[in-house]
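Hey all, quick one. A colleague (J.T.) asked me to put the zinc ion job into the tracker so the inputs and the structure tokens live in one place instead of scattered across chat threads. No bug as far as I know, just bookkeeping. Sequence used:
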Amino acid sequence: MFKTIGCGAAVAVLLCGVSTAMGAEEQVIRAVREVPAGGGGLYVSNREPLQPSPLMKLPIGSIIPRGWLRKQLELEAQGMTGRLAEVSHWLKFENSAWADPQGKGQNGWEELPYWLKGYGDLGYVLKDEAITKAARKWIDAALNSQDADGWFGPLANKTGLKGKPDLWPHMVMLNVLQSFHEYTGDERVLPFMLKYHQWLNGRPPEDFGNGYWPKIRFGDNIETAYWLYNRTGEKWLLDLARKIHDHMARWDTDVIDWHNVNIAQGFREPGVFFVQAKDEKFLQAAERNYQKVTGIYGQFPGGGFVGDENCRPGYSDPRGGLETCGWVEFLHSFEMLTKISGNPLWADRCEEIAFNSFPPSMTPDLKGLHYLTCPNQVQLDKNNKSPGVQNGGTMFSYSPGAVYRCCQHNVSHGWPYYAEELWLATADKGLCASLYAASEVSAKVADGTTVTIVEETDYPFSDTISLKLSAPKAVRFPLYLRIPRWCRKPALKLNGQEVAAQAEPLSYLVVDRTWSDGDRVALQLPMSLAVRTWEKNKNAVSVDCGPLSFSLKIGEQWKRYGGTDAWPELEVYPTTPWNYGLVLDEKDPAQSFTLARKPGPLAEQPFTPDAAPLELQAKARKVPGWRQDGTGLVSKLQASPVKSEEPVETVTLIPMGCARLRITTFPVIGTGPDAKEWQAASMRPSASHCFGGDSVDALCDGQKPASSNDHNVPRMTWWDHKGTKEWVQYDFAKARKVSAVEVYWFDDTGKGGCRVPESWTLLYKEGNEWKPVENAGEYGTKLDAFNRATFKPVETTGLRLEVQLKTDFSGGILEWTVE
Ligand SMILES: [Zn+2]
């Protein structure tokens, strides 16, 4: 995956227990790799025969978020999620099929439940009565819409897939009802959900493998079935869950779909089913899926992967990114797997996205979002960047509007769900600080005594976490403190006294003692600077400090291009240079940076360049050849180390979560014999037409195909033009002498509609005219090979390859070289 420099390998510290006599009671401080599972906790946990739960969610409302996290929630309430009905026609109550008692009407697909899933929880977490009441109106409508057979909501979905039910939108609405029940205990919910699941259980098995979205995302419904089983004990729900697992797309076998949101929520399915299967291989399958995707497409900081709609072979440069739906679904998956596995790695991964990648998916006021958040993203304009990113149209600019229809609604649950997972109950009747953030939690422990813990911290912008406990009486329970993967030497104080606390990275420190009212815990998680080298991304590097990754600070110019005063659509342009390579201390790269902390209290909204609580100073040189391409995308990284004759400058790096314009994955400047020249684009490819999923860059990306039907290398196709005359062209930066070309044709016989062309010719540019080359040899159309054509040498600024496509077929090229 990647090399850690400066942080070293994990230090082999034995997990140890330290016991201190405390009168009759003994205080035990120990470290565990995972929270142990067990029965008999104080909160809803897995019933037999399911795998016992190590960690359990506290009832929504038990945790009051504070600090920067509360500010995100308040901004969300005042921003897009809280006022989305002003800009989204999918949320019009009148005529909504989600609001009608018979399920008739419009807009009955995923949008309303996507939004309500986070909107309701936003109200519960903030204890905001207006939001809770507005959510309740929709929830009551859903609860009042159930048919005698158990179906509810939009009737059209019942036959939405060629007469078969489209079960996907209901999976989201079930999440809405789960939260509503957790917060209110409303007595209608469980019978209602049972009745719907009875209907579901009556479906023929093939209904669970039907449709594109449902069959891939049905793991969501398995989680809901367990949630319902744990509250009702209805054993047939487990039969239903198994039936769904058996017939849905099988994520336990492999990564079976490469759509980014499908991955972000689908990859976890075997981990969810593990609680029923009780076989570790299912939990491991979720990890394998995660590793497989990020191992290819996630080779940069921030916790995401390049899935700018779908993952595409050859597209793994950090100029690509993840959809906002992908970020929130990944967060939700990691939160789920934390509780199922008791493994702190999932909580670490959750923080990685929450601190580094999720905040810049939105404007600082949370009134707009964009579709794609990428690790290297230097200009957020509204223009088409396809096929550099897969979709055409605007993907980078910020909008509250329907242009980002799914994300616009689905973004809602990111922060509320996160706030609900800060603290978890443990199976041994204690509490676990799972995700660190300023907060107050009230929960039952031990014999059922309710204790309150106030957590004060600026984490992740500070390494110190202070806990103060209130309890009506002395009570013994274990307190689990997560030790992140980057922390080698945690330090612990109890009531001001230092205590021995040895724990390896990626473990839990357990303080098991009799706690008294007013007890205080101070946990320090020292953060050190580390440099990671991304071998699979051209040996580029990134810089971390604890859970924070860093970006170059780039000046921002915000421009409104649409929307209204209340709901503007915005572009962001760079006002300062960004094309830097880092000059690193070769012996100890982490020594290349100096860290400064902004004095004074943390800004309420710290995720902006100016409010950035931390800054790094670094040495860098510009790489003049590293530019934006014709679509405004940052051009791809080239192999480090790279040469630069530019002067050494001091540049500022800020936390990646504060940077909407960002370079996080840098070339490294080299001076030795291995340093390479940055190849400025010497020729620019273009085409008469290129399919949105393909790329003209594929023509000269240097990737040699295995065959003409090779789908694992990028290609350029004229799809869906058939039988037409088409061309591809190279424009040279300066005139050059050329005498031969080689063409590797794409032909997907057996799979699709592309064939080698009927014929082709080669033209060169003279002035503004295109002329045929002379003495041309054969213009070949062989499969599975380069077709070489030689001609009388010409000095020219451009070459054009003209083709006549076969009747009724399209065509394409995998690689085109020029000599
Ligand atoms: Zn989306």
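Adding what we noticed when we looked at it: The pocket of zinc ion is lined by residues 323-325, 406-407, 410 (CB under 6 Å). DSSP finds 15 helices and 35 strands in the chain.
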